[in-house]
Amino acid sequence: MQGEIEHGLSLAERKILLQIARTAIELATQGMRLPKLELENYPHSLRENAATFVTLTEAASGRLRGCIGTLEAFQPLALDVQEHAAAAAMEDYRFTPVKPEEVSLLHIEISRLTPSQPLKYSDPKALSGLLRPGIDGVVLKDGDMRSTFLPQVWEQLPDPYEFLNHLCQKMGATANIWQKKILTVLTYQVEEFHE
Question: What domains are defined for the chain?
């Protein structure tokens, strides 16, 4: 577990969420409706509102196959995971929808987010030094543009300059805009677990 999640989920709770995610993906790829979760049958921690991202990778290659989530906790954790698992498989605009025969070849990762906190700074060149590689997820906002990278992205982009450049490009801005102006920056941490 990374960052500042106060109360981590138990192994049993994590297994329940991973099963909810896998079932949602299986059903979504077959064009079937997701079952209504009987929340009263789940542990209290899975009924509390939480923000999650569900990331799908190809188990053999490790290549990203879909990633969908939210930064704001607005619904119960179990339901959030169910919806984002199905959406990661079917609605990530960067990829074609997952086919039923691909499901068994996918690796599922769930990230439960802490609430985002604003990061105040006054010098654009100082921003890269304020981030904590491997710990902070980062949200950048500039007007109507917005993007985020989960803390796990630091594994591919360990250099803060490169991390911020890619995050600006993901937002639809030029890579170095973060060095030229003050952007709205939020940070968060995650509890990450996978199959």
Answer: 11-113 (3.30.700.20), 117-189 (3.30.1490.150)
